[in-house]
Every structure is written in structure tokens, then in C-alpha cells.
Amino acid sequence: MIRRLRIPAPEDFTAPSHSPQVTARLGLWLGVAFGLCFATGVLSHYIQHPPGWFTWPTRPVSLYRITQGVHVLSGVAAIPLLLAKLWSVYPRLFVRPPVRQPIRLSAHALERISVLVLVCAAFFELVTGLFNVAQSYPWGFFFPTAHYAVAWLVAGAILLHVAVKLPIARAALSTPLRRRRAVPGADDPNSSERRAFLRTSAGVAGIAVLATAGVTVPWLRRVSPLAWRSASGPQGVPINRTAAAARITVPPDWRLEIVWPGGRETLSLAELVALPHRTAELPIACVEGWSVSANWTGVPVVELLRWAGAPTGRPVRITSLETDGLYAASTLPAAHARDPLTLLALRINGEQLSPDHGYPCRLIAPSRPGVLQTKWVARLEVLR
Ligand SMILES: Nc1nc2c(c(=O)[nH]1)N[C@H]1C(S)=C(S)[C@@H](COP(=O)(O)O)O[C@H]1N2
Ligand SMILES: [Mo]
């Protein structure tokens, strides 16, 4: 049996922007923004904590820069879209009574609870994400873990919400915005207001993206007043953690240590500098969405391992002089460890690395999150 759904008429609500045609379209756009944000966020999580079955390509060198840029910018776009969607449904959020059958937990009540979970979780993701890009952590929990866990809650709540709303959303999406009234030639006066509200919502989302996209899109830097990172910084690249903050002191007798199952080799800075170098243009792409390209010069890790007589084609653990930081070490997966563009960099944009950029040497590898580009490297360990 096919049930005919009654689309609430615009008069059911106080303003045309509260019509289901508006809500459904905003829902669709929001679904695209959240979908992109979720997919790129899960990717970023897997790159940083790879399960056994996961591999991430080393090419194009900017792949992570792109996926993480999409993550942060789709999140930025979702903020005005979520506010607009809440505005478009808010009369219905306060329908009385909130629970139709007070004794039994009705489907209606469950649906209302799932919407509450969805709204709270979505706000949690967008707000914590915003604070994260602003490098402000005014809370007690560990941001990546909480942000990742709640993302699954949002995804599940969205799927449930879409499943519940599919019939009404489909009907509303197939109802043209420009609906003709019974009187021929007379346009529904509310339809232009509905379209204006949708245009404004899309416009605000677009402006929010343009105003911030300069953090990662070089040619947008000049039109992005709200970009939270510019291309400037010592030697043309911003610094997240300075050598002073990480309490780095490079010992005068610094030697790079290379260890592998059954072997060990060390070399001085002078010996490292004397090895064949390679220069590559590679981006630093922070998980916070900002990214900047630079010309890095250094010794390819694979060549260094060959020079030491260590096995290649295995994952390599990179450890910093930093002792207690969260990002004091990282692991190069086998694909990155054997890539000739994975460098132990000694120079940036033609100059010796400044202390803040990781002097005496830092890791820089293609298509890799900034947090894994370990600075102030002290040790390479070939894993089994
Ligand atoms: N040892 C160490 N390396 C590190 C970090 C750190 O805190 N300690 N921060 C990482 C992060 S989060 C990023 S985005 C890049 C930032 O690079 P930059 O500060 O050198 O520009 O370095 C990475 N390397
Ligand atoms: Mo970062």
C-alpha cells in the first residue's frame, strides 16, 4: 500500500523558511558536508593509527594535504548549514507534548531522542574542531580520541535520522521550490522567501569556506581573512611547537643512531651532511588543516639505511630528541620508508634548518600528516 504523505503547508509554520522543502534541501547539503568530513576524518585517523589492512599511498605528495583540507573546510561549511537547518525546523523541535505516549517509549519519542543526540554530537564535533584549529584546548579530554569517537555517534545518528525522514525528505525534495498557486500566473509568495533563505544559507557557507580556505589553498591566502595560519613563519613555514617549548638542547656531540634487528650504526652531523642529498618540494600538512609547501634538502631515508647496511622495505620508527612530547616519535610505514622522497631534511628553502624547524635534522615525507613529520630526530629504528 502506498501512503500519501501530506507535506505540511507553509502556513503550518510562522515563516516560509520553516517549510520542509527548505529543511530537506539544507539536510541534503549538510549530509554532503558531514559525509566528506567523516570520510576524510576517518582516513586521517587510520593514517595516524593504521590497522593492519590499511595502506596509504605516498603519491601524489599532496594527497594528505588535500584530504585534510577537505576535512577542515567541509566542517567549516557545516557550521552555517547546521544553524540554518536548525532554524528551519525549530518550530517542530518544540512541538508539545514532546512525547506523545508518556507511558510507553513510542517511536516518536525515540526519534526525538535520536535528533537530540544528533544535534548535540554534531555541535560537539564542530565546536571541538574549531577550537582545535585555533589550538585552544579548554577542556580536560584528549581532543583526537573524543573527536573521533563522537564522529561515529554523529554518523550513526545521521543514518537513523535519514532513514526516519526519507519519505518526507523525498517528497519535499521533489516538490519544486517555485510552487504555483491555484490562480494561474500567480507565484506562491512564500516560494521566493524560501529560495532567498536557501541562497543566503549557501552563500554564508561559501563565504565561511572562502574566508578560511587560505590556510591550505595557496592562491586563496589573500582572500581568507579568517585563515588561522599564514604562509609566514621562520624560513617561510609556520611553527606549531618551538624548540624552546619542546625543551630541546642539541648535545654538541649529537650523533644520529640507526638500529635494526641485529645491527647498529651512528653518524655525526658532518658525516650526515657529507652523504648524497636530494631536494624536493613537499608540504607540511597539519591535521589542523593548515598546510605550506617548502623546498626541503636532505638525505633520503632509504639511502641512509642502505649506507648503514640496514634492511630496507620495512617500517621505520623515528624518534626525536624531545623526551616527553606527544609527537616525539612516529613510524614510517614500509611504503613511506622506501619512498625516495622521504627525507631526513637538513635544509629548508636553501637554508640550514632553524632550531624551531627541527635542527639538526627532521623527517619530511610525502603525503603524510604534519604530526608525523618528526623534528629534532635522534634515532631511526628499522622494525621487523
Ligand atoms: N618532535 C616533534 N616533532 C613535531 C612536532 C612536535 O611537537 N615534536 N609537531 C608536529 C606537528 S603537529 C606539525 S604540524 C609539524 C609542524 O611543523 P613545523 O612546526 O616545523 O612547521 O611538526 C611536527 N613535528
Ligand atoms: Mo600539526
Automatic annotation (TrEMBL):
Presence of the UniProt keyword Transmembrane in the record: yes
InterPro entries linked: Mopterin_OxRdtase_euk (IPR008335), OxRdtase_Mopterin-bd_dom (IPR000572), OxRdtase_Mopterin-bd_sf (IPR036374)
Transmembrane segments: 26-48, 68-88, 109-131, 151-173, 202-220
Keywords assigned: Membrane, Transmembrane, Transmembrane helix
Domain Oxidoreductase molybdopterin-binding: 251-383
Record has Transmembrane as a keyword: yes
CDD domains in UniProt: SO_family_Moco (cd00321)
Protein name, UniProt field: Molybdopterin-dependent oxidoreductase
Organism: Micromonospora trifolii
